[in-house]
Write a structure and sequence with these properties.
Blueprint (H helix, E strand, L loop, with lengths): L7 H8 L3 H22 L4 H22 L9 H8 L18
Pfam families: DUF8015
InterPro entries: DUF8015 (IPR058328)
Keywords: Membrane, Transmembrane, Transmembrane helix
């Protein structure tokens, strides 16, 4: 008979599979960990909190610009929709273009 239960790690991996979900979870954890570490090593909290905030900003910047969100495949319906559209503006021979419906 097989085990029918899921381990906690498998359950979390099943629920949170996206890179951006991991980043959203990592931002507050990194902020708290860096701020606490710097505070307990003797740095004043007035300096530890902005440094921890900059770590969170770096994580957000990485998620937005280095590994930015992009679509997997371009939407083909948008390209074909404009491919068959009537031209707008003067035609090459100088006559006005027909009005679009």
């Amino acid at each position: 008979m097989e085990n029918t239960y899921m381990t906690m790690g498998h359950c979390i991996q099943y629920i949170m599979t996206s890179y951006y979900d991991h980043i959203l979870g990592l931002i507050p954890v990194a902020f708290a960990a860096v701020a606490a570490t710097l505070y307990f090593t003797g740095l004043q909290s007035a300096l530890a909190i902005p440094v921890a905030g900059s770590v969170a900003v770096v994580l957000v910047g990485h998620a937005l610009f280095v590994n930015g969100p992009v679509d997997d495949a371009p939407d083909a319906t948008v390209a074909t929709q404009y491919q068959h559209a009537a031209p707008v503006g003067p035609v090459e021979d100088g006559s006005p273009a027909p009005a679009a419906d």
